[in-house]
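Re: Re: ligand-bound prediction request (bumping)

Still looking for help on this. To restate: I need the protein modeled with adenosine-5'-diphosphate bound, output as structure tokens. Inputs repeated here so nobody has to scroll up.
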Amino acid sequence: MKETIKPQKFKFKAEVSQLLEILTHSLYTHRDVFIRELISNAADALDKVRFMEVRGDTISDPDLALEIRIDIDKEAGILTISDTGVGMTRDELTGNIGTIARSGTSEFVKQMAEGGEQAVNLIGRFGVGFYSVFMAAQEVEITTKSATPEEPAWVWISDGRGSYQIREAAEKTGRGTRIRVILREDTKEFAEEFRVKSTIEKYSSFVPFPIFIGKEQVNKIQAIWREPRSKVKKDQYHEFFKFIAHQSDDPMTWLHFSADVPLQFHALLFVPKTNFELMGFGREDDGIHLFVRRVLIDAHSKDVLPAYLRFMRGVLESDDLPLNISRETLQENPYMMKIRAAIVKKLLSHLEEFAEKEPEEYKKFWRAHGRILKEGYNDFQHKDQIAETFRFNSSKCRDADELVSLKTYVERMPEKQGEIVFLSGPSREALEANPAVEIFRVKDIEVLYCYDPIDEFVLPGLITYRDKQILSADQVDLKKLADIPVRDGDQKEAETGPDKKDLEKLARRMKDILGERVESVRLSERLIGSPAMLVGASDAMSAQMEKIMQMMNKDAKPSAKILEINPGHGMIRNLLTLYEKNPADLLLTKLVEGLYTSVLLLDGSAEHPEAMAASIQALIGETARLVLDEKTE
Ligand code: ADP
Ligand code: MG
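Reply:
Sorry for the wait, this slipped through. Here it is.
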């Protein structure tokens, strides 16, 4: 045999070498995963030729049947997996095998390096499934011929130790890819037919092309999404989910339904237990498998569901979409838009039902995916339904773990309460200590506690829920609360405090001391137990808008807020006494500064904790000195 071109040697990229090192030397379980990964690649390659065919592309060897063949040479310890798929050109070979292109993969490699034997089971999610072959192989030989006509066939050989070789194939081959796995002594089990068969049953029973071992087809082709629901068993749903989502857990819940008129489609959509995006693994695996007349048009279609449902996995098949539709026009396709609206509606009601039937499971769902689902607040078409799926912690929950729906919130609103009230802050402790909550607590008004910065957009973004306005606690008009009775045992302190006029003088002096840092200082109507708090100036931007501005522009200065002081609070009365003795008292100045600093901390506006600590310490020092000076005078 004559070789037309000399073999060329290439080094694996550093991150590939690192991955291979782990795969070959430290993983001893889940080795059978490599068979699943090679078959899955073969199936992807077959999907791609089928797609080229229906698009009308000219392809090489158009008469070849679309199938996967497995040959076992027990004596030699060689397992060969062949497909008649798209194959690879020389550039594709070097580009697709030998590099890692996806984001999230390095995080995955790190997890495996840290002893994640389980992690290897997820390898297919990270665009590096092929390399799993080196868990079993001492050498791998790929022979591949592209579906692009006139392309020669290529041979790729590697022992997985740092480099690989590519040469033009000497012998003539047909379209597709053949992967010869020369097994190691300790992995010879994979040259046993029963072992290979059982692996295929375990992982690859949903591969949509025939898999042959010798003459025998070892898989049934099951498009379960086209079956009636009553015919599909729970286990089949579980297995199918694991197959298409490349995950090892069962799904949390799923929705399977078909429609005929006026829209024709089959949908099978799963909610996974884990949200890989939120775990920092990137979004590469996003999307739904979209089939048109049995042809896989896109394995990661982003057009089937809106972005806020991107944690879903599954299949949509419709015979009424054009086969040659491009991914660009799909999004705008009116038929697709109608299907999408129908699916979203169904899916959101499914989630509502799920929440009702299995509240504990729904909590897990919300913890896993709520962060992304919340992005749906601005989908006006489904706003009402989306709001039903939201959950928050609140002042009426026993602990930070309990969640409340907007529906429950509204149902237990006191009769005269007009609005839905929320407040955001870093934690339950922080919000419980926030003076802005006090007035609501004594009036028995529930406050939704929002710990996620996105809630600041989500809740005001909904604007209303069941005709109730949604307002941040500092935006609620306190006059409207006047009619709501105070909760038993929580009587506001008797208003026999100092004269209002005197207090107003103190407030003016405090404004002098604080200068530009506050918009004004005024007597509070809302404070119960706390001496003071900051509220947004009514004509200024809402606190939420302000945060948006600051996110967009780091240099944007927060606008000055109003300092409210509690006329009934002992500390304020003491300050008044100091003021009345001597309005220019230096101690008074220092104490007002200190009060302001503490209030900033409570407000969560403490941008420079080190500066604040320094100012508190300076205050302690100077106060002590002032008191001592007074005593020695
Ligand atoms: P992924 O399948 O997630 O892309 P893999 O590491 O399994 O990651 O495969 C890398 C790439 O190698 C594939 O995307 C594909 O382009 C190519 N490839 C692997 N196996 C085959 C095959 N049997 N036929 C054609 N191309 C293949
Ligand atoms: Mg793969």
